[in-house]
Amino acid sequence: MRIYLDNHATTPCDPRVVRAMLPYFTEKCGNAASKDHIFGKEAEQAVEAARRQIAALLKADEGEIVFTSGATESDNLAIKGVLEAYGSKGRHIVTVATEHKAVLETCKALEEAGRAQVTVLPVDSTGLIDPDRLAAAITEQTVLVSVMFANNEIGTIQPIAEIGRLCAQRNVFFHSDAAQAAGRIPIDVEAMNLHLVSLSGHKMYGPKGVGALYVRKRHPRVKLRPMIDGGGHERGLRSGTLPVPLVVGFGLAAEIAAKEMSEEARRILSLRERLRRGLFESLDGLTLNGHPERRLPGNLHVSFACVEADSLMTELGEIAVSSGAACASATLQPSHVLRAIGVSEVLAHDSIRFGVGRFNTRDEIDVTLDRTVRVVRRLRERSPLYGRMTEHV
Ligand SMILES: *Cc1c(COP(=O)(O)O)cnc(C)c1O
Hints:
The protein is built from 12 helices and 13 strands. It is of the alpha/beta class. Pyridoxal-5'-phosphate (PLP) is lined by residues 70-72, 100, 102, 148, 152, 177, 179-180, 200, 203, 211.
């Protein structure tokens, strides 16, 4: 029995999404930019419908959605685009230690090229930033604040509306990487004063290889310097032929998410809580990483003292979860997110992320719970460290 519990890394494509995409690979083969024949017009209409579906998910206007290849590209376009367009006004960026590498490395590249100064804010032990600290970090030179909506490792949800108010008062642009939040929790670009928002299709049951950047058009209008030059697609912000089937799938994924979000969040939360309660009731020496309440419904990030994540994952076999060091596992560095919330290096290597999603069942949760408890107990039996730890309790 294969069980997929890694829905933060990627989500399976919803079968309804696959069905909607299929005709656009074959009979509906037009290029959305070929507006002089019916194939092109049909593709263009499908793209514009998808744009409306994605805009609706964010309470945005359809003219504010730019299609990209994914959230990595959207983050790059938002940050580099603002810095290159407004560099004469100031070159200071404020971001956060727990951001995705697509944000942190983009900021670092700009800084190393001498094109930006970057302030990286710390977070508390639950992964939250302190808005007062953010306010204090904003200077006359600040042009952009970039704070992710919800964290991809520990699930912590930042106080986005509060940060948005702050940025509006101080007259700086506010970008949020919402790859994990979109489709899972409500986003309202007006109420939250967001200027730029990055999205990814494959994090919300759409296809891989497509994403979007919300770019505010009014109050204020955000100008961006494009990264890709060419035929001037997407209002000149992102040249290149649109992947019409992927765009269509992404659009439907957004519509489904908008419609089913609240009910789905309840269901996923109850599955996650079933798993969390079961683990914490059956095992000692566990720590929940991230915020106890302000977290994504499907996210459960746990450190199992004296159990190496690698061994645990090997023993879990066909149950797919992620190790705490997921992002940096090739280098064996503990994740920058766990370090930022103060998890020790040893415990970081004992940490597992469970990501519950749309297609998980109660049976799968129960099998996972049972297997995890048994494996952890077995691995600890062999652990001298665990023996010493429990002796003293
Ligand atoms: C997955 C993810 C990304 C990267 O998205 P891609 O579409 O795979 O490029 C960026 N930020 C966050 C928070 C993510 O979870």
